[in-house]
Amino acid sequence: MAYADQEMSGNRIASFVVVALLHVVVGYALVTGLAYEAVQQVVKKVTTVDIKKEEPKKEPPPPPKKAAAPPPIVAPPPKINVNVTPPPVQTVVTPPPAAPVVPIIAPPAPVAPPPPRVQPKPATPKGNPANWATTNDYPTRALREEREGTTSFRVTVGPDGRVTGCSVTSSSGSPDLDDATCQNVTRRARFNPATDGEGQPTSGSYSNRVRWVIPKD
């Protein structure tokens, strides 16, 4: 038996059951003395059986296809007038800023040393400087060749008053006369030594000259 036949048989059985129940109710109403009109209304409601067939479920329709979006509207580029005269260019000459004035700071003045407690003194010769070189010291060759001249010299004097060095500052023109000058002055000269600002002996210097003259007989 097909599924539809089974469904129809079930509906018929249900109808028979309903009709039987209807007869029972009518009989009961007659026995109990219910009004005929009430019985008619019950019969009318009961006999009206609305048997609905189960309808097969409908599948939902497929979603509508989305329409493709129209391509964007591209406006043509505006026409450019190439012959437009450019605006005049104004050149503004801005003078360069003035250089900053750099103040010139003078160096600090040197600090003067404190004044000496005692006035310094130069070296002074002891005795007569004419005795440092005499005609007896005349070089033999210069005397034989009759050479004369004046030799200027400068000596350095140590704290003990002795000559520590001699130099010729102006030559006589004869090397042997110049050498004789320094040799005799270094050997014979004695000095009072120079003193510093504290009155203490210190190194000093002395300058003079020797005139070499051939003696007359």
What does the model show?
With 217 residues, the chain is α+β, with helices and mostly antiparallel strands. Among the domains are: 3-47; 124-212, Fusion Protein Consisting Of Minor Coat Protein, Glycine Rich Linker, Tola, And A His Tag, Chain: A, Domain 2 (2-Layer Sandwich). The chain is 28% helix and 16% strand. It contains four helices and seven strands. The longest helix is centred in the first third of the chain and has 30 residues, at 3-32.
Overall geometry: rod-shaped
How much of the polypeptide forms β-strand, as a percent range?
Answer: 15-25%
Distinct helical segment count: 4
Which value, in Å, is the CA radius of gyration?
77 Å
Structural class: alpha+beta
How are the strands of the largest sheet arranged?
A: 3-2-7
CATH class of the domain at 124-212: Alpha Beta
Keywords: Cell inner membrane, Cell membrane, Membrane, Protein transport, Transmembrane, Transmembrane helix, Transport
Region (Disordered): 52-74, 110-217
GO biological process, one term: transmembrane transport
Organism: Novosphingobium ginsenosidimutans
